[in-house]
Amino acid sequence: MTEFKWHLMDEEVPPTGYGHYIIMGQRGAMYYADSFEVDTHIDLGGYFHVPNNRCGYKYAREIKAWAEIPPLEVQRC
User: Fold this and answer.
1) Domain range holding 17?
2) What is the pLDDT of residue 44?
């Protein structure tokens, strides 16, 4: 069985670049994100790209926790 390992955004940020993440907003909403980038122009702590979302991004200050989506483990009989 694969498990998600949650990380608090205040304590740890994901690696920069492409990845598969579940992110939790400050009020508990859950989103899928496909990358994390650090914005060097504005000090917002980085942002997640959230496809199929109205604005397309969630800034680090809006996120309570994140977890990397583990690869699917297929068990064959």
Assistant:
1) 6-68
2) 66
The position carrying tokens 């496809």 is: 51
Q: What is the CATH number of the domain that holds 57?
A: 2.30.30
Report how far apart, in Å, the C-alpha atoms of 16 and of each of 19, 49, 50, 72 are: 9, 11, 15, 22
Are the CB atoms for 41 and 27 separated by under 8 Å?
A: no
Structural domain includes residue 22: yes
> For residues 55 and 7, what is the distance between their CA atoms, to the nearest angstrom?
24
Look at residue 23 and tell me if it is in a domain: yes
- Across the chain, mean pLDDT equals 88
Considering its fold, how many domains does the chain have in total? 1
Q: For residue 6, what pLDDT band results from cuts at 50, 70 and 90? A: very high
Query: What is the arithmetic mean of pLDDT over 13-39?
Result: 94
